[in-house]
Amino acid sequence: MAGDIEALLTELSASGVRYVVGGGVAVVLHGLMRAAFDLELIVDPDDTTTLERARSILARSPTTATVRPDTTFVDLHRRAVVITIGSFTVSVVSVDDLIAMKRRSGLAQDAVDVQALETLQKPNAPDEGSPIERLRWLDRWSSELRSLVGAS
Q: How is the chain split into domains, by residue range?
């Protein structure tokens, strides 16, 4: 799964798609270890070329992701944190924006994420490793979960 996410983000970046990563994957990339299966790609709704390119790439990818055109894309992109994953960089919604998005959702998991994300804003917050290490952890965790589900 994490390898698929990394491959997808690499292809999107190489294709010139301007996006910001949101959702559970953004939570993991900011340093929180949790089972993140939701990848949200926030794109500029006025850039129809990018929107179509992103949807075309996703149609060929084994990764499930949501492409969400957002009128606040320019602001989200400006405030995004640029994270290096392997040999490329990815824009991830800022912690403040991620908290605001998750507060608006009303989902139970998002409420848990908000509490955890707020700890990242405190001085001396724990470092959970590099973004690539966090994606690999997610891959191992999801593989273990799939084997447990298959065993029951």
A: 2-120+127-138
